[in-house]
Write a structure and sequence with these properties.
The protein has about 375 residues and is mainly α. Helices cover about 80% and strands about 0% of the residues.
């Protein structure tokens, strides 16, 4: 709230002593912008401030207000993401997702909130799959224990009339669970979680030693053996990098990069965002969120470069050459292969050198 109070104070200053200045620079009144910020309507406030700073690049007060609003928006997003994470740790997934969805209504443009929503939904799906697998493994262990009881029953009561029927049903169930575990094991092996695949396939083999299961185990990359009595907990091994394939490690790396990208993008650091984007494209150029963010980034960079080139041209025409060079250099960091931009910089630097020589050697 301290940041919002600061924004209101800045707004009052502009509305008070700077009324004449405000009438020239901000068509939408500061009252409206401050009202949006007080209500945490960061999408409206930031979009309006972005337009105004673009129209009035020399307005330092307006730019300071934009930066303060940006910090407030970033803090708000971080708070909502942290609250959602806390709820997710308590398995309150619907409430966690609602935290992000509500925050996105306040700041629809936020890359951090979009990426956090994706990550949260992925975690929820993983949790569902983990619980389903734990149930399947539990049923497998129960069936193995039942085998021992059947053997004891056959020894104690060889003439038990329903034993044959019980065994047929029991064996059918063992086969069904074994096939499900084989399917899961092959799937997680394709996804790169080798430790989890090993446990699924070994449990499947204990239930039904079929040729398909033996072949799957033979194709599995060699990792340390599993003890016969080892109790497997899927969550314990899911993040173990030692038994993860290169592909799985790359997917996890991509998740980390998406979070980093979103944070720098929301800070409007397009140079850092572009560098992170390049790393993500090397890992998975077809990832839906990466493709979406790349298209958005390309448009933002195009606009920023065009704006800086025009601003530099304007400064250069006013013979404010050093300022023009600084603006064009900023654009060049975003568009390093722009030949026209490099030509402008070379010409400006030559002009500066000429002016320096004139100052040093006046006639």
């Amino acid at each position: 709230m301290s940041g919002i109070r600061h924004l209101c104070i800045v707004g009052l200053i502009l509305l008070g002593g700077g009324c004449a200045h405000l009438s020239r620079t901000v068509p939408i009144g500061m009252d409206q912008i401050n009202a949006w910020l007080a209500a945490r309507e960061y999408g409206n406030a930031l979009a309006t401030l972005e337009r105004q700073t673009r129209l009035h690049p020399d307005d330092d007060v307006l730019r300071a207000l934009q930066q303060t609003a940006q910090r407030e928006a970033n803090r708000y997003a971080a708070e909502r993401i942290a609250a959602a994470d806390k709820l997710a740790q308590q398995d309150r997934w619907e409430q966690a997702l609602q935290q992000i969805d509500d925050a996105r209504k306040h700041w629809p443009q936020s890359a951090s909130l979009r990426v956090a929503r994706d990550a949260l939904e992925n975690r929820r799906q993983q949790r569902i799959e983990q619980l389903q697998l734990e149930l399947l493994l539990h049923e497998g262990r129960s069936l193995l224990e039942t085998a021992r009881q059947h053997r004891e029953l056959a020894q104690v009561n060889p003439g038990y009339l329903s034993l044959d029927w019980d065994l047929r049903n029991y064996r059918a169930r063992r086969g069904s669970v074994a096939r499900k575990l084989l399917e899961v094991g092959l799937q997680v092996q394709r996804e790169g979680d080798l430790r989890l695949a090993q446990h699924c396939l070994i449990m499947a083999q204990r239930l039904e030693d079929s040729a398909a299961i033996r072949a799957a185990l033979q194709r599995l990359p060699q990792i340390e053996p599993v003890e016969e009595v080892e109790e497997f907990q899927p969550l314990r091994h899911r993040k173990t990098a030692r038994y993860a394939s290169h592909q799985l490690k790359q997917r996890r790396r991509l998740g980390t990069l998406l979070g980093e990208y979103a944070r720098v993008r929301d800070r409007n650091d397009l140079v850092a965002a572009r560098e992170i984007m390049q790393q993500m494209l090397e890992i998975d150029p077809g990832h839906p969120r990466v493709r979406e963010l790349k298209a958005e980034q390309d448009e933002l960079i195009r606009q920023a470069v065009e704006r800086d080139i025009a601003r530099g041209d304007d400064l250069y025409s006013q013979e404010r050459i050093e300022e023009a060079v600084a603006v064009w250099q900023r654009a060049l960091r975003l568009a390093p292969f722009d030949k026209e931009l490099r030509h402008k910089l070379d010409r400006a630097r030559t002009a500066l050198e000429t002016l320096q020589e004139i100052k040093q050697n006046p006639r």
